Amino acid sequence: MRWTNLTRNQLSAHVGLVISAKPAVDKKGRETMSVVIDLKDRVVLVTGGARGVGAGITQAFLDAGAVVEICGRSVPEAGGISQHPLVHFAQVDVRNAEQVQEWVADVLSRRGRIDVAVNNAGGSPFGRFEKGSARYLQAITELNFLSAAHVASAVLPVMMRQPDKGSIVNITSISARRPSPGTAVYGAAKAALESLTGSLAVEWAPHIRVNAVSCGLVATDGAVDHYGDEDSFNRVAATIPRGQLAAPGEIGAACVMLASDMSSHITGAVLDVDGGGEWPAFLAHTPNADELKPLELEVEGAHS
Fold first, then answer.
1. Is 186 noted as a catalytic residue in this protein?
2. Coiled coil located at which positions (predicted)?
3. Whole-angstrom Cα distance, residue 151 to residue 44?
4. Given the residues 145, 186, 204, 227, the one annotated as active site
């Protein structure tokens, strides 16, 4: 993964990074350099890493040079990212603590280490809260909260035995901090996961860093089906200040950054990757609504 326009002073604080040898100068005359996050030979776990957001996360770590171990309840279709030579798929139900322990033990026996665990598995069907059965409530909570707890518990002793310890990244959602009608239990489970993230970051410091990436709306293969036809999809995208849904790879890039030494002093954080959130709905009905239309390019530098 590559980031540009970092000053030399910013770079001096980072360790374990491969830095390009060609400095450049930005528009303000400041000397800059390109930074490459190199995770070569690091072993990364990604739950639900074969499709959707998970596939974007898997690809991002592959781009950074890592070896990626992914899992899921069903075997992925042929030709997907699970066929990559640096990816190994295991059929695991992460809601089952015993299966998770067996998966981690298998990875350790083959790879000898586990450097990063990304708890991505999750999701929920749409439905009113009062229509959900007790079994439904339990299943959604197990998938979106307890599964991450199972993985964190399983990798902790492995990481603690390693000289470089390790990093955990939990995938949460903006639904954790705003009303989520239709997916109320999902939002509550993600809120619990954000709370767990902060608590484990403190309990396991300074050895294991635990952070979270909070996703907004993401343009996965099934997004158009979820939001309706293309016109509906575009209207949904227009509610986001950036005017578009996130790409799965953008979620992956955030995970790589948090897992790398570039974030060596970041733990207990929840990084929002949501394009600025949502335009407040009431603004469209105010007299000044037109003044808040997206900025035109010609106003760039108006205050310079």
1. yes
2. none
3. 12
4. 186
- Where residue 135 sits, what CATH number does that domain have? 3.40.50.720
Does residue 221 form part of some domain? Answer: yes
The b-or-e profile of 226-245 (16+ CB within 10 A means b, else e) is: ebeeeeebeebbeebeeeeb
Percent helix, percent strand, percent coil in the chain, to nearest 5: 40, 20, 40
What domain range includes position 47? 39-279
Residue range 116-166, pLDDT digits in tens:
999 999 988 889 989 999 999 999 999 999 999 999 999 999 999 999 999
Decide: 217 and 236 in contact? Cβ < 8 Å: yes
Backbone angles phi, psi at 140, to 5 degrees: -65, -40
Tokens 């158009």: give the residue.
Answer: 224
Q: How many domains does the chain have?
A: 2
At 212 the three-state DSSP class reads: strand
DSSP string, 134-155: HHHHHHHHIIIIIHHHHHHHHH
Within a domain: residue 285?
no
Q: How far apart are CA 98 and CA 95, in angstroms?
A: 9
pTM, 2 dp: 0.84
